[in-house]
Write a structure and sequence with these properties.
This protein has 13 helices and five strands. It is an alpha/beta fold. The longest helix is centred in the middle third of the chain and has 19 residues, at about 170-190.
Length: about 280
C-alpha cells in the first residue's frame, strides 16, 4: 500500500535526521559553524582548563565559547578547547583515537561530554546507550589525570518528544523526565558531574509562556540562541559552582531575558548539588 506523502511539518521534523548526518567538514567549509579553538594555544598559569567533546548540540551557536565568555566575565582565567564532530554519538568518541589524543593532551581540569537525547532517554530505541561510552571516556580522562572531573551534559528532550517516530507517544515533558532519571543514575554510578542542562530547559519550557521553537531551533531538536545561552550558563554554574545570575554577560540575548535565563541556570544547579554530583 503506498505511503502518504509527508506534509510540511513532517518534512521539517525530518530535517533533524539530515542535520545529524551532514559531515562536519561540509558545514565548516560553508562557514556555517564558524568554530575555532581557543586562540590561546596553550593554557597559562592559573587557567581552568576545559575540554568539550560532542556534536552539533555544542557546535550550534558555539556553546564552548559562550561558557568561556561567561567564565571570563566572572573573573576566571579559563582555557577552552573542543573536539566536535557533527552527527556522531558518544560511542564514536569513545572509540576514536583522535578523541583520546585530545583528552590525553593535557591534564584537564574538566572534560565535558555531550551525548544524545534519544540514547539517554530510550537506549533500547536509539541503539547503543551512552552509558558504556561515558564509562570508557571517563576511564581515558582519569587514568593518567586522576584530578580531572568528567562532566556529562544532561541532554534536553526534543521539542516534540518522540512523537515524530511512528508508534511513539512520549511528548517533551515525559521524555525530559525519562532523561533526568537515567542520567542521574549514570552520574552516580560512574562518578560523573552532571550538568543539568535538560532540567534548566524544562524549568523554562514548563513554566514560562513561550512561542514554538523558543529554546529549540526550527528542527525541533537543536538549540536556538536562547537555548544555547541557557546551556552555556548551566555548564558555567556546574563547573565553577557559581550562580550564573551574577555574571553580566548577555551575548546576543536581550539583557533582561539573558538575566532571567542565567537565574534559571544558576538555581537549577545550585539548588540540587548532591543530586547532580557537583562538589566544590
Amino acid at each position: 500500500m503506498p505511503q502518504k506523502s509527508p506534509g510540511p511539518l513532517d518534512l521539517l521534523r525530518r530535517v533533524r535526521l539530515l542535520l545529524l548526518c551532514v559531515p562536519l567538514f561540509l558545514l565548516s567549509g560553508c562557514n556555517i559553524l564558524g568554530l575555532d579553538d581557543d586562540p590561546v594555544r596553550e593554557p597559562g598559569e592559573g587557567d581552568t582548563t576545559v575540554l568539550f567533546i560532542g556534536s552539533s548540540y555544542l557546535a550550534f551557536n558555539n556553546v564552548p565559547d559562550r561558557v568561556r565568555d561567561l567564565a571570563s566575565e566572572a573573573g576566571h582565567r579559563v582555557f577552552v578547547r573542543y573536539h566536535l564532530a557533527l552527527g556522531q554519538p558518544l560511542s564514536y568518541f569513545a572509540h576514536s583515537p583522535l578523541a583520546a589524543t585530545a583528552i590525553r593532551d593535557l591534564d584537564w581540569d574538566f572534560v565535558v561530554l555531550q551525548g544524545g537525547a534519544q540514547s539517554a532517554a530510550y537506549p533500547q530505541v536509539g541503539g547503543e546507550s551512552d552509558f558504556l561510552a561515558l564509562k570508557e571516556l571517563h576511564r581515558i580522562a582519569t587514568e593518567d589525570s586522576p584530578g580531572t572531573k568528567v562532566v556529562y551534559m544532561m541532554p534536553w528532550a526534543y521539542e516534540d518528544g518522540m512523537t515524530w517516530m511512528e508508534g511513539r507517544t512520549e511528548g517533551y515533558e515525559e521524555m525530559q523526565l525519562d532523561i533526568r532519571e537515567r542520567t542521574v543514575k549514570w552520574a552516580h554510578e560512574l562518578d560523573l558531574v552532571l550538568a543539568p542542562v535538560g532540567m534548566a530547559w524544562y524549568e523554562v519550557l514548563t513554566n514560562w509562556p513561550h512561542e514554538e521553537h523558543y529554546l529549540h531551533d526550527t528542527d525541533w531538536n537543536h538549540a536556538s540562541k536562547e537555548g544555547s545561552y541557557l546551556t552555556a550558563a548551566t555548564i558555567f554554574s556546574t563547573i565553577w559552582v557559581q550562580d550564573a545570575a551574577a555574571v553580566d554577560y548577555s551575548w546576543e540575548i536581550e539583557k533582561e531575558l539573558a538575566g532571567a535565563l542565567r537565574t534559571v541556570a544558576g538555581s537549577t544547579v545550585l539548588d540540587s548539588l548532591s543530586l547532580w554530583n557537583v562538589h566544590h
